[in-house]
């Protein structure tokens, strides 16, 4: 029904002035589905429905006008939402509900229904205005996001248990074989990985995670608020698979700094930064700088198991690592091909 046809059918309820003309034009031309219902007629029938309403529901003008809006409801429509609509109409109130409706062909859709009263110049109620918006895709995305978060929480719980079991196995094996010191060293690596994964699991469902959160989780236990660790980086996001390489690498560097490097002295400091680099900023670059510790210009000939682990991890990830032993301390630059 066009605005002209509507005016002819309802001359007593003209929308006055220029604002009325604009309102009528907007109702006819907007892509939003709109209808008007007569609150004074029996069963409050629809008296106007624009083209968008007809396209949304699949019904023709003749099938819409003269019927109450409830014809869009079906067996799975929530009666609680229907009750909210009924209350709003009784109170001449404005309300918005998300209600499951049905098209003419029986297809379900989620309708964000906005209802409100319209008054004439004398303040008398003349119509109820209804706008409909198909939010089925929004609802599906919302449900998918909720499911992903629930799965992430469950995965987080299971991974905590898994790391706890691994730690227990390592401790028992270490005691049985008389290598408790080695077992403790392995367990520290396991715990570093656990911290890195725990902070990023909520984001894992999206494919990318904020690497800064993982880096902080790995390294903050080494600092414990002493101010001997400084971290610089933004909210750079990288694929979830990068976490394990970054986690173990930084743990090994931190452990080495405690034993032989900057953190083996009271004045030693470590600065860790991360940034994007490479083509289309697709790579992750992590820089580790030590200062205030022992002279590192003459490195020990023994590279140690930590460095061997780091080198193997970086090689497996097809990345690169550069070490510079300087009088002020060790500087390490690591590149992870994140994409």
TrEMBL record:
Xref: Pfam families: HWE_HK (PF07536), PAS_9 (PF13426)
Alphabetical list of Gene3D superfamilies matching this protein: Histidine kinase-like ATPase, C-terminal domain, PAS domain
Family matches, as InterPro entries: HATPase_C_sf (IPR036890), PAC (IPR001610), PAS (IPR000014), PAS-assoc_C (IPR000700), PAS-like_dom_sf (IPR035965), Sig_transdc_His_kinase_HWE (IPR011102)
First-level EC class: transferase
Keyword ATP-binding tagged: yes
GO molecular function: ATP binding; photoreceptor activity; protein histidine kinase activity
Keyword Signal among record annotations: no
SUPFAM superfamilies membership: ATPase domain of HSP90 chaperone/DNA topoisomerase II/histidine kinase, PYP-like sensor domain (PAS domain)
Keyword annotations of the record: ATP-binding, Chromophore, Flavoprotein, FMN, Kinase, Nucleotide-binding, Phosphoprotein, Photoreceptor protein, Receptor, Sensory transduction, Transferase
Domain PAC: 95-147
Source organism superkingdom: Bacteria
Its EC number(s): 2.7.13.3
Record's catalysed reaction(s): ATP + protein L-histidine = ADP + protein N-phospho-L-histidine
UniProt domain PAS: residue ranges: 46-92
Protein known as: histidine kinase
Organism whose genome encodes this protein: Aurantiacibacter zhengii
